[in-house]
Amino acid sequence: xxxxxxxxxxxxxxxxxxALGVFPKSLHGAPNxxxxxxxPTCVASANGLEAVSLAIRxxxxxxxxxxxxxxxxxxxxxxPRDTSVGYGGLPNQDGVVQLDSSxxxxxxxxxxxxxxxxxxxxxxxxxxxxxxxxxxxxxxxxGAQRFAKSMGHPIxxxxxxxxxxxxxxxxxxxxxxxDYLLPAESGEPVEQFRTPSEFGDGLLDSHDxxxxxxxxxxxIVDANGDLSSVTTxxxxxxxxxxxxxxxxxxxxGQYCDNDVGAAGxxxxxxxxxxxxxxxxxxxxxxxxxxxxxxxxxALRRIVHVTVESRLRREDGRPNFSVNYYAVxxxxxxxxxxxxxxxxxxxxVDGDARLEDSAYLFERADG
Length: 366
Ligand code: ASP
Description:
- The protein has a single domain, classed as Glutamine Phosphoribosylpyrophosphate, subunit 1, domain 1 (4-Layer Sandwich), CATH 3.60.20.30.
- The protein is built from eight helices and 15 strands.
- It is of the alpha+beta class.
- Strand 11 and strand 12 form a beta hairpin.
- The N terminus is likely disordered.
- It is globular and about 65 Å long.
- Bound molecules: aspartic acid.
């Protein structure tokens, strides 16, 4: 135990018995907890190894938690090799990239989001502008793009030669009754689809072999126990235009409560929206659950409500996966997925690595 000066009082009515790892709940829902200096910790989806490293470095250079993680995810948004996020993200069914992002800043209780925004490489920066410069929390579609333009974000073509080639093949596979040719039929080599696992994301991140999913979520706690979260994505590949996933939905794709912790998701967004996934995790942490266990419990709820036969395997389990990531105010962290094989990125005070996610089911079971 450090001296009393090492402790930061984080809520009124701090109980003398409160200690690290304990979140006794008060009537208004804010836990009475005493936090001593926390080891700066950042978690992210597995494609966020560089992002967590950068975020912790930014903290060390004096950045605020939200700026640190937004700079981290900007790396992935700008990277054309990650076809699930930002520039180079796989387009919708019309061949147009529509991006989703949301974020929350713990200390100011701020929130901002954009959904189905086109033409902006780093939608998390637009979400940040929504939080900082508007009285709103969520802008969508054309209005979001107009706002982005007004804030000085360049409007660019986000389709890369690689993402266009994949979309062309997807379109050709839709039907053998139309006039679009498969690359094999036109003499081109058949495209071998890369999966998010190339970015370290483990297995079953697509719920259909030709429609890979992926996203980056990033959550951080600094030395004072202040928190922030951000999620950014191009969403489900080849989606119906206008489809919005969980990523820009506050409480679904990410959630942060500076009294408790931050959490976020990747994977099938519809399942996360339906269960208010990230908010659920934060509430479970508020009640004292470890981040890893809170992630697992939120996944159990998804399994429980997945009753549609089109979404279930023969054994009744979901035929998709969801990954959750969480960190609490004390610097405890965890990640979990429905099926074994997933990993997540973590940096604890600058030591960045991939760790295995906890899971509900072995894939071999199915
Ligand atoms: N959660 C994202 C969405 O549903 C996609 C993903 O993470 O795979 O839009």
